[in-house]
C-alpha cells in the first residue's frame, strides 16, 4: 500500500489508498507519528550528507598541488588533470577502455537493488519529497537542515488538519 493522503493525524487517523485507489482508514498511533518524523529526518539528513560528499569530491578533484620536484608522485596540477592527462605529468595512461558500456549498464541494472540508496520506505520517501517540494526545495546544508525539517513538518501538520 502507498500513502495517498494523510488526514487528521492529531485525531489518530490516516487515509491510505491502495493501487486500486480504494481508500482505507487506519489508526495512526504515536509510534507511527514517530516513524514519519524519523523517516523525514533520515531522508533530509541523507541529502545533507550527499551534498557534503559531492562538495568533497569536487574539491578533492580540483584543488592544486604545488610543484614539488623532489617527489615521485605527480605535482604542479590538479588530481583531475593527473587522471585525464597522465603523460603531461610524467605518468602513463593505464586505463582500460571499454568500448561498449551497455553491458556494464545492464549488469548494474540486474544486480543493484533499485532502492539501495533510498532512506526510508517508498511511502516515507514519497511523503518527504512532496513535503520538500511544498517548502520550495531550498538548498539543504547542515546549517539549515533542522529549519527545513521543521518547515516540512509544519506543512505536514497543516495538510493533515
Name the descriptors.
about 10% strand; single chain; about 160 residues; disordered N terminus; mainly alpha
Characterization of this structure:
With 161 residues, the protein is mainly alpha-helical. The chain has one domain. It is 48% helix and 9% strand. It is built from five helices and three strands, in the order E-E-E-H-H-H-H-H. It has helices at 30-62, 79-84, 102-111, 122-134, 145-160, and strands spanning 2-5, 13-17, 23-27. The protein has a three-stranded antiparallel β-sheet with strand order 1-2-3, with helices on one face. Helix 1 (30-62) packs across helix 4 (122-134), helix 1 runs antiparallel to helix 5 (145-160) and helix 4 packs across helix 5 (145-160). It starts with a strand and ends with a helix. Mean pLDDT is 80; it is low at 1-27.
